Amino acid sequence: MDDNTIFSHLPQDILHQIFTRLSLQQVVICRSVSKHLYSALSSPSFTHLLATTSPFPLLALRPPHRHHPLPPSPLLHLFDPISHKWLRFPLNFLPFPSAHPIASAAGLLYLWADSGSPDGNKSLVVCNPLALRYKTLPQLGSAWSKHGSVLVDSVDNRVIVLNELALLYYSNIKNMWLKFSSNLPAKPRSPVLINKSIIALCDVGSPWRSQWKLFICSLKSLQTSQMWNCLERCEWGDVFDILKRPRLLKGVGDVVLMIGGLKSSFSLNASCSTILILKLDLGKLEWGEAGRMPGEMFRCFQESSKFKVFGGGNRVCFSGKRVGRLALWEAGEDGKEEWRWIDGVPGNGDGLYRGFLFDARLDAEP
Amino acid sequence: MSFSKTIMLRNYDGETFVVDEVVAVEPQTIEHMIEDGCANTSIPLPNITSKILSKVIEHCKKHVETPNSNEKDAKADLKSFDFDFVKADQGTLFDLILAVNYLNIKGLLDLIYQTIADMIKGKTPEEEEEMRRVNAWVFSCFVGVTCLYFKSKKI
User: Fold this and answer.
1) Residues ≥6 apart with Cβ < 8 Å to A38
2) Which of A5, A12, A144, B145 is the most buried (most CB within 10 A)?
3) Is the Cβ pair B142, A89 closer than 8 Å?
4) In chain B, which residues have their Cβ closer than 8 Å to the Cβ of A21?
5) CA of A130: which chain B residue's CA is closest?
6) What angle do CA A339, A341, A342 make, to 5 degrees?
């Protein structure tokens, strides 16, 4: 692997033009070939250009249970839906004894890590596993890592942690968490951050009968006492009653997806006929159907009482207890949907895998 | 027979090439030189050899002469011409890319960039095996390989 190749004599801008025609994976391999290529393909102008020419959208898995002991060599398992292959990114460049991946936005990976303090506090760590760079955010009490939902965004690398009572907003400028009191009527379920608002489901019903409603909080109104407002329209009818245990995911653009088992009747413990994906256009505030799991596929999920959903945009993944594999829903640009199975899921979980979207990029800077 | 204007190009080897203006302005660099009035006697291209310059002219000529229609035959003909054009050894490709970059011929530049990118992607069986080994390393011990390599090179 010497430096005497065609590449060592080409000027940088020509190298950039050639390598932006390769995939991110190929660029990472080529970077290891020589010192010259490594520096040419690591420059910010190149990595930024590559992020636009060669996107690398992946589905990352969260480790099965936060309290299980982690394997000695921590890895992030990801699925590439385009080449249909499983990948592994090592996380041992992080100097923490245990780090649990939890979320991602714009090429940055967020993990909960032991901050090493005796009081059991945790820290959120933000890193780029391809560039091997990381940053530790200020400590938070362990209750936040156990019960809080982490929401992240590409705009200003926003990080929010929220629970029923309060919302923490990370201020980049002051390097501290700002705390705001929440006025939610119940625990927020699957909150999502879309544009400049947080949307969550809340069960405002009784212990024996759920009644789901959507709540929205604009980031501009964090300092007011009534930051959450119920989002509803009478035209929506009983859209929340047809789904069992609905949850939310970010859609494409100004859209939120709501996913759950489609109830076969309105009776209390009705069984489900399939899994339905609904979409809400936040501009027009209109619901539509985005997808519906095919019968043969749903049969594998029917036995498991629970299933997990993760992903977003135009790719949603489903996992169920003892199903053994993942079901993947993909929506094409022309509106056509495709359902397929993902086999070979790594790890020895009970089948209930959780995860998140991860857009691998070399230029993401924590 | 049309009496089109011709341009003289004088290159590194001292040779002069006489080219129709319409072909000569394919390279943006030359087009700008002509516009700026620097092309009174001949246009100097001191950093390009005869071998490369004649190849470039051949490409420009072919693309200028082929009618810009959406006809299947014309397109297929051009495609096969381009395909044969880049079947050159590494050294020639290297010289070509520098020359075409200097001359700024967009279509030909795209063709060469894509050719080299495809060369990197598609490898001989021995290189493919090596790449596969490296591939497995890179994504499972990315840190290890890079650190070891750089340590050994004393960076």
Assistant:
1) A31, A32, B146
2) A144
3) yes
4) 113-114, 117
5) B142
6) 130
